[in-house]
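Lecture notes, unit on protein representations.

Consider one protein chain, 66 amino acids long.
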Amino acid sequence: MQWDIFCRVIDNLGDIGVCWRLAADLASRGERVRLWADDVSALAWMAPEAGGVEVLHWDASLPVPG
């Protein structure tokens, strides 16, 4: 199954952290995961290895793809 998770980073990076943990957990179970976020910069130090998770930039002002 393909999962698409969308994250709008608001403050304190808790939002991207929760989205990352969900994405990583799904990937560890063999699922295909794409994490779309409007600010992926925090993942550089929070999760430098995106094993199994495809991280993509999402312009939150645009409609959700699909």
